[in-house]
């Protein structure tokens, strides 16, 4: 059985992680205000926009068009961290057809040719009616960034949106946060090794199965704790490989006549990492179920939940990653499906053996 020690240890580290993330300040201001009074509203957009006593207001009744304030910043250092913050409220925001058709505050990096939407850019998106609240987000300036656009917008949605006290400053990580980050990641690493050791030795199966389990475990750790920027680069490289393969097919099989601009739709690209999470946990659970001596499903299920929860919690302190309940559910679902498949196979084999 899974010892109560593992469960209590997981709960303890999780509580400490959440508490530190909530109360330990990550950044401190290291530079002057970067925004100016040079805000503009593009002429081709509809709706109403106004500014009065450092308070911006946006209003639109047309869900097919957008209204926004924008400002471009070009004075910054590559690799620096910029923090964008503002007080915001909204009233009767009715979302448009797309998930991003909301009231939003963005920091979009521009490489001189196009906006880099694949990089983190959202401070907050709002819908419905919400009272004044403070929102902030920090962004690392990429190596190809030539300009930064600050955008407050009603993106193809209707309603009213107000902003005030908008600030953009360069920041640095606080020393206390650095210490906490190191301690938290080290703790989750030890917990993962402890959990993995229990999985490998709590059974009587072959070395091959244990090696397969370790490989699946390493794949899960790499996939779930990879920094956000590196994850984006891997996804982009994957898409480039798909496009290269498509071009090669056109050369060898012209009858296919595939478009040279064909690629993976953004929605599918977002789905691929989720499918990877699901697949790795499914494989891990199948091997784990074969290794463990116990036939009680609750044992491997508990291991899966602890591993899925631990990898998501660690993402509080992984650059560019955010722990999501949806990812935890996907990981757990993949693991449970793997266990169900092994249990079904076992029972089918037992029935066949019994008949013989």
Overall description:
46% of the residues lie in helices and 24% in strands. The chain has seven helices and ten strands. The chain folds into two domains: 4-25 and 175-355, no CATH class; 29-173, Galactose-binding domain-like (Jelly Rolls, Sandwich), CATH 2.60.120. Strands 1, 2, 3, 5, 8 and 10 form a six-stranded antiparallel β-sheet that branches. By secondary structure, it is α+β, with helices and mostly antiparallel strands. The longest helix is centred in the C-terminal third of the chain and has 31 residues, at 325-355. Strand 2 and strand 3 form a beta hairpin. Mean pLDDT is 84; it is low at 255-263. Helix 2 (175-201) runs antiparallel to helix 6. The radius of gyration is 25 Å and the shape is elongated.
Helix-strand layout with pairing:
Elements: H1 4-23, E1 27-29, E2 48-52, E3 55-60, E4 67-73, E5 81-94, E6 103-110, E7 122-126, E8 128-140, E9 147-154, E10 158-173, H2 175-201, H3 207-225, H4 228-252, H5 266-291, H6 298-314, H7 325-355
Antiparallel strand pairs: 1-10, 2-3, 3-10, 4-9, 5-8, 5-10, 6-7, 6-9
Helix pairs in contact: 1-2, 1-6, 2-6, 3-5, 5-6, 5-7, 6-7
InterPro entries: VanZ-like
Pfam families: VanZ
Transmembrane segments: 177-195, 207-226, 275-292, 297-318, 324-342
Summarize this structure as a short list of keywords or feature phrases.
Jelly Rolls, six-stranded antiparallel beta sheet, transmembrane helix, 2 domains, transmembrane, 7 helices, alpha+beta, membrane, VanZ-like, about 350 residues, four-stranded antiparallel beta sheet, about 45% helix, VanZ-like domain-containing protein, elongated
């Amino acid at each position: 059985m899974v010892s109560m020690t593992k469960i209590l240890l997981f709960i303890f580290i999780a509580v400490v992680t959440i508490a530190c993330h909530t109360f330990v300040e990550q950044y401190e201001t290291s530079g002057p205000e970067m925004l100016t009074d040079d805000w503009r509203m593009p002429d081709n957009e509809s709706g109403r926009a106004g500014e009065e006593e450092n308070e911006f207001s946006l209003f639109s009744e047309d869900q097919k068009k957008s209204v926004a304030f924008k400002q471009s910043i070009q004075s910054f250092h590559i690799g620096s961290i910029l923090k964008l913050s503002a007080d915001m409220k909204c009233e009767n925001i009715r979302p448009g057809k797309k998930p991003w058709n909301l009231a939003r505050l963005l920091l979009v990096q521009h490489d001189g040719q196009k906006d880099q939407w694949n990089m983190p850019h959202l401070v907050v998106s709002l819908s419905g009616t919400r009272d004044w609240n403070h929102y902030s987000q920090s962004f690392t300036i990429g190596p190809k960034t030539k300009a930064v656009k600050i955008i407050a917008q009603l993106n193809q949605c209707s309603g009213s949106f107000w902003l005030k006290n908008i600030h953009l400053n360069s920041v640095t990580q606080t020393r206390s946060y650095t210490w906490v980050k190191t301690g938290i990641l080290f703790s989750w690493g030890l917990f993962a090794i402890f959990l993995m050791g229990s999985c490998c030795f709590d059974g009587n199966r072959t070395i091959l199965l244990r090696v397969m389990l370790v490989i699946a475990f390493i794949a899960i750790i790499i996939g779930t704790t990879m920094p956000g920027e590196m994850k984006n680069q891997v996804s982009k490289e994957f898409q480039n490989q798909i496009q290269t393969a498509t071009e090669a097919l056109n050369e060898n099989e012209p009858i296919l006549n595939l478009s040279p601009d064909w690629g993976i739709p953004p929605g599918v690209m977002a789905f691929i990492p989720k499918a990877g999470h699901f697949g790795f946990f499914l494989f891990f659970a199948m091997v784990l179920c074969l290794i463990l001596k116990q036939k009680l499903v609750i044992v491997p299920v508990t291991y899966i939940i602890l591993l899925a929860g631990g990898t998501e919690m660690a993402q509080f302190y992984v650059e560019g990653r955010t722990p999501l309940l949806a990812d935890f559910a996907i990981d757990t679902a993949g693991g449970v499906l793997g266990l169900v498949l092994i249990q079904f196979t076992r029972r089918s084999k037992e029935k066949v053996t019994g008949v013989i």
